[in-house]
Design brief:
The chain is α/β, with parallel strands linked by helices and about 150 residues long. It contains five helices and seven strands; from the N terminus they run βαβαβαβββαβα. Helices cover about 30% and strands about 15% of the residues. Strands 5-7-4-6 form a four-stranded parallel beta sheet, with helices on one face. Strands 1-2-3 form a three-stranded parallel beta sheet. The protein starts with a strand and ends in a 7-residue tail after the last helix.
Length: about 150
């Protein structure tokens, strides 16, 4: 799930990733681009027909449509979280929630979810964050590995 994504190329690459992993992609607005954006389409190549995409005007619309979800189904990812993504207890059906490229999820949004918030370690102090598409790739495949979706063939 991307909350307020801003850069179409990142969302396009994440759409392609979601298609490859057979993962549903939730885009929670406001979006910083149009879904018809040529950069979004180019980054996703011709894989968009394979993306299980759900789009919501804002977090309130998502929340209203999914009120039956348990808070334990959500894993939030932020460069400012205390625990690493390796400490997360991934389960099939989890929502992996990422924020915008420039603002992340925001302190106010994350505060009530601190126990379910995780970060990807960055070892160079001069680097503030990873590219959003890279971060989603790392976390999604770790979640797939931990829930036994990745099996030796």
């Amino acid at each position: 799930m991307l909350v307020r994504p801003e850069i179409p190329q990142n969302s396009g690459a994440i759409g392609r990733l979601a298609a490859a992993a057979k993962a549903r992609l939730h885009l929670v607005g406001p979006l910083g681009f149009s879904l018809a954006d040529r950069y979004l389409k180019r980054a996703g190549l011709d894989y968009w027909p394979f993306v299980d995409l759900r789009v919501y005007r804002d977090w309130e619309e998502f929340d209203a449509l999914h009120q039956t979800l348990r808070s334990s189904s959500f894993r939030y990812f932020s460069a400012r979280a205390q625990k690493t993504y390796l400490a997360a207890d991934y389960r099939a059906g989890d929502y992996l929630v990422f924020g915008s490229e420039t603002k992340g999820l925001g302190a106010d949004f994350l505060a009530p979810h601190a126990n379910s918030a995780y970060r990807i370690p960055i070892f160079e102090p001069g680097v503030r964050s990873l590219n959003l598409a890279n971060a989603v790739s790392i976390v999604l495949y770790e979640g797939l590995r931990r829930t036994n979706f990745l099996k030796d063939e």
